Amino acid sequence: MPNVQKSAANVHDCQKENSVNEKITILYQRLSVDDGNSNNESDSIQNQRRILEEYAERNGLIPYINIHDDGYSGTVWNRPGWQKVIQEIKSGRVQTLVLKNLDRMGRDYLRVGLYMEMFREKKVRLIAVGDGIDTFEKDDDFTPFRAIFAEYYARDCSRKIRAVKHSKGKLGKPMSANPPYGYMKDPTNKDKWAIDTEAAAVVRRIFEMAIDGMGPNKIAQKLHEEKIERPSYYLAQRGCGTFKNIYDKEQPYSWSDTSIVHILEKLEYAGHTVNFKGENANFKNKKYVPKPKEEWLIFRDTHEQIVTEEMWELVQKLRQTRRRHDTLGEANPLTGLLFCGNCGAKMYNCRSVTAPIFDVYDCSTFKRTQGTVTTKCKTHLIQTKIVKQVILELLRETNGYIRENEKEFIACMQENTALKKTDTAKVYAKKIAKNEKRIAELEKIFRSLYEDKALEKITQTMFDEMSAGYKQEQEDLKIQTSQMKTELNTFNDETASVEKFLKLIKKFTDFDELTPTILNEFVEKIIVHESEWSEGRNPKTGRGMGTRSQKIEVIFRFDFFCVFD
Questions:
Q1: Is a pLDDT exceeding 70 seen at residue 229?
Q2: What is the mean pLDDT of the chain?
Q3: CATH code of 213's domain
Q4: How confident is the model at residue 17 (pLDDT cuts 50, 70, 90)?
Q5: Contacts of 441 (CB under 8 A, 6+ apart)
Q6: I need a labelling partner for 28 at 20 to 30 A (CA). Which of 178, 378, 493, 494 fits?
Q7: Distances (CA, A) of 393 to 347, 397, 399, 514, 553
Q8: What is the rounded CA–CA span in Å between residue 24 and residue 18?
Q9: Is the same domain home to 533 and 423?
């Protein structure tokens, strides 16, 4: 059903009504941009209505009803008001359709022509007051050209708007007219975003729940239970957002998992502007076509963060691992963190609530090929509770040590960083300087070759052959230099990593329980090696004999690792 408040069919009968069975006149108005009138109806719609009602009164076109679309482009045909017009015409109730101008119907000359043909078949009189069109009196030979000009106008406007948006996008200004949920336009600068405190708190909580191991569907259910307004409803109630004219008022808390995913994937919440993520196919087809990430333009630190970049990246990593819910109704929080020490594959979780009760991880390569002729890798079976105990013990020891010896810990980590830089950074620095010098020399050679070609000292074939080798050499040097600079930046960022780790570990007062939040915040990956037996294995049965030991490497985030036997 169309929305009766705005951008929809606002239908009311004229006071001069006759019999219910008598055919009616429809006065249709459309405006492509809502001007935000306090009466929820634009001045232009009011003016169109006044003109059409005066015309209908003067020419005896009664009874009539008014139907309008406020805030809809003429290139869009699924407008609720227009669909109501077509529905009424198909029902046979309509005698006359009155518009201010033909372009109020739409700006696609083929569609306009098809609808006009339908009106002729239904014996519906079409009047465009401003254009002097009245199909009851005579056909206007110029009518098809009016429709074509209307479409060209829409095409030209679309081209100009797209050019302006591209220009803004390349300068790092937001291309979207509406800031994402959690932000609002800065009152002092329309090209900047400011924090919307209430919505930002919800966004931050969504990220925290994701880190706590909750999936999009569970997060949506939780927000619904707590009666948190969904983004489209929240924004529409404040006169903002894309759907401020069309939204379901009856379902204010109906969050969907799609909305949650959209929020979790939005890099803008980390304080960056991301442009050219997609575009409409053309001015007629409003379908959004996403672009590959390689074509995005990312401008960093353009507005205040709602979540830290580390938090955003952690959520993206967690979302890459599919967590299946088992008979317990929940996913194991360690899934996606354990890897085989031999083949490097992820480890599978197997657990059961029935006897015999077990909860273990094993190498996925071994599990897939076990019992076949081509069995690969070996079992790395380990109990989940042991892994959790190891991690919790390491965190407790690390936390206790840092709280008592913070300066020594920082000095130790800085010393390790210095050792790494001593062995590598000096070599890289010399190599980078040498590469950049050679790249500059190649630039001079290119210019010289261009001049020789322009002066016809060498032929095009000679130029192509000579420049091809130089060009390839230059590209190789640029790639190599970029890689070395990236590694050097990693070394330089390790001091910041120490500070981030300290800040993170101080965030928790104790480590009594290994919660999903603690696990995901601290642990990058866990490498499980094959178990060893003190007396080897029985040659007949292959079973281990004596005492069993197994090495586990726990790699914390921010490049810290521990080894536990």
A1: yes
A2: 79
A3: 3.90.1750.20
A4: very low
A5: none
A6: 178
A7: 22, 6, 10, 10, 13
A8: 9
A9: no
The verdict on 496 and 518 lying in the same domain is no
Backbone torsions φ then ψ of 387, nearest 5 degrees: -60, -45
Structure confidence at residue 190 as a pLDDT band (50, 70, 90): confident
| pLDDT exceeds 70 at position 147 | no
* 242 φ/ψ angles, rounded to the nearest 5 degrees: -65, -30
- Tell me, yes or no, whether 14 lies in a domain: no
**Token pair of 357 as six digits:** 């009760």
User: Are residues 527 and 382 part of one domain?
Assistant: yes
**CB-based contact 7:45 (threshold 8 Å):** no
Q: Which of 135, 153, 171 is the last residue of a domain?
A: 153
Give 369's pLDDT tier (boundaries 50, 70, 90). Answer: confident
Question: Token digits for 23?
Answer: 């055919």
- For residue range 249-301, list pLDDT tens digits in order: 788 899 998 999 999 999 999 999 888 887 765 555 566 677 887 788 888 88
Residue 10 counted as domain residue: no
Based on the fold, state whether residues 262 and 129 are members of the same structural domain.
Answer: no
In angstroms, the CA 102 to CA 129 distance is 8
Domain residue limits at 470: 405-504
Kindly state the average pLDDT of the residues 448-453: 84
Q: Could you give the angle at the alpha carbon of 212 between the alpha carbons of 210 and 217, nearest 5°?
A: 45
Give dist(CA 12, CA 168) in Å, integer.
43
User: Are 390 and 496 part of one and the same domain?
Assistant: no
Kindly tell me the sign of the dihedral angle through the C-alpha atoms of 105, 9, 179, 193: positive
> Domain check: are 288 and 211 in the same one?
yes
User: Which residue, 1, 21, 9, is CA-closest to 65?
Assistant: 9
Q: How far is CA 218 from CA 98, 205, 228, 265, in A?
A: 51, 13, 14, 17
pLDDT-derived band at 322 (thresholds 50, 70, 90) equals low
**Residue 29 or 159, more confident:** 29
In the predicted structure, residue 40 carries a pLDDT above the cut 60? no
Q: Is residue 116 part of a domain?
A: yes
Q: What angle (nearest 5°) sits at the alpha carbon of residue 61, between those of residues 50 and 113?
A: 85
Percent of the chain scoring above 90 in pLDDT:
17
**38, pLDDT greater than 50:** no
The total of structural domains in the chain comes to: 4
Residue 525 lies in a domain: yes
The single residue listed with the structure tokens 């518009």 is: 99
Helix (H) or strand (E) holding 298: strand 297-299
Are residue 258 and residue 238 in the same domain, yes or no?
yes
Cα dist from 233 to 36, 200, 204, 241, 254, whole Å: 18, 15, 19, 9, 9
| Three-state secondary structure readout of 386-416 | HHHHHHHHHHHHHHHHHHHCHHHHHHHHHHH
At which of 474, 504, 534 does a domain end? 504
Going from the C-alpha of 528 to that of each of 345, 446, 461, the distances in angstroms are 10, 54, 59
- How far apart are alpha carbons 113 and 102 in whole angstroms? 11
CATH number reported for the structural domain that contains residue 121 in this entry: 3.40.50.1390
